[in-house]
Amino acid sequence: MNSVDKNTDGDYLVSARHTDTIYKISGINGEIIWRFGGKTSDFVHEGGFNFSKQHDARFLESNRTHTIISFINNAASNVAQSASYSSALIISLHTAALPMTATILSQYDRPDRRLTRRMGNVHTLPNGSRLVNWSQGGYITEYGLDGKPVLEARFATDRFASCRVYKHEFVGRPSYPPTVRSFAYGRKQSGATTACHVSWNGLQRLLRGDFTLMRRTVRSHWAKCNVKASRPSSCMMVTRRKSAWKL
Question: Model's pTM, two decimal places?
């Protein structure tokens, strides 16, 4: 078992990799409502498609007659293989039909035509795009509404793998306020240089405009300096002479 999802009725969608089956389990008594895939599937697979060693089965939509789910069809393990390459599938299950039928709505093939032999997931984004994690080497692909890849990324090494990958809007809320540190270089005031480092650790509101630093002048007055927060977490400024800085 590698994933469990729960719908609004309280029933569960369970993915069992070693039986090549996705189960719907009653949230009331724990009984199997139906089996999709494997040797004892309750569904007719339209077009004769198959899947195996799947991961991350998720409810997407449901009504009285149909259930739409997503999962990654690994199609292989270290000892078995049912397809040439892995893919992500969006499936419509017609549960009111006799017999029940399963239809592929969308299929997202792994672009490099290789196999994901373990782990992986499919994340449906708010705009309807799909983010697919192919696991090994952190390889991911985002597909647009037309089903074509719009983004690909991977780790710099295949040494590591990602079990699950998700994409969300990020709002930085660090637990401490922005900090400033300044360091003076040079023995004499006339030839000295001061480097001022400011860090706000991703504080989101600083990415939307300027912030103000105070610099002590030669006459010991504090002068305002407006700084554009153009980087995600920090910036550095260099000034002539020795000077103190504060936020």
Answer: 0.76
For residues 107-117, one letter each, b for 16 or more C-beta atoms within 10 angstroms of the residue's C-beta and e for the rest, the string is ebbbeeeebbb
Q: Which of 173, 227, 231, 220 is nearest to 196 (CA)?
A: 227
Domains of the chain: 3-153 (2.40.128), 179-246 (no CATH)
Contact criterion met (CB below 8 Å) for 88 and 108: yes
Question: Could you tell me the two tokens for 47?
Answer: 């077009």
- Cβ neighbours, 10 Å, residue 58: 19
pLDDT in tens, 23-59: 999 999 999 999 999 999 999 999 999 999 999 999 9
Name the pLDDT band for 208 (thresholds 50, 70, 90): very low
CA dist 145 and 141 (Å) reads 13
Question: Angle CA(9)–CA(55)–CA(143) in degrees, nearest 5?
Answer: 95
Range 22-29, long-range pairs (CB < 8 A, 24+ positions): 22/54, 22/57, 22/69, 22/71, 24/67
